[in-house]
Amino acid sequence: DGSVYIDNSRMSFAEFKATFKTLAGERGKAGVYVRADAGVTAQRLVDVIEVVKTAGIDNVGIVTQSPEAAR
């Protein structure tokens, strides 16, 4: 459905884009891990990472799960 989660808080991509820079300023800019489910397009993942990088966070990791672990 295009939702983005920060911790356990669900929001639209537009809300995420509008609020992430402020949140990053409050929490610090040490790094962010991004995790996406199988239904997320590569473009949406790139969009999220771009918002993170625009907020001044250059250390972005992508969390993965092997297909065997997902079973």
What distance lies between the first and last C-alpha atoms, to the nearest angstrom? Answer: 23 Å
Q: Whole-number average pLDDT?
A: 90
Which descriptor suits the 3D outline?
globular
Main beta sheet strand tally, sense and closure: 2 strands, antiparallel
Radius of gyration: 12 Å
Unreliable segments of 5+ consecutive residues: none
Strand order of the largest sheet: 1-2
User: Number of helical segments?
Assistant: 3
Structural class: alpha+beta
- What fraction strand? 15-25%
- Helix content estimate: 40-55%
How would you characterize this protein structure?
The chain has 3 helices and 4 strands. The chain is α+β, with helices and mostly antiparallel strands and 71 residues long. The strands form 2 sheets. Strands 1-2 form a two-stranded antiparallel ribbon. The longest helix is centred in the first third of the chain and has 15 residues. The mean pLDDT is 90.
Write the layout of secondary structure elements.
Layout: E1 4-6, E2 9-11, H1 13-27, E3 32-35, H2 42-54, E4 60-63, H3 67-70
Parallel strand pairs: 3-4
Antiparallel strand pairs: 1-2
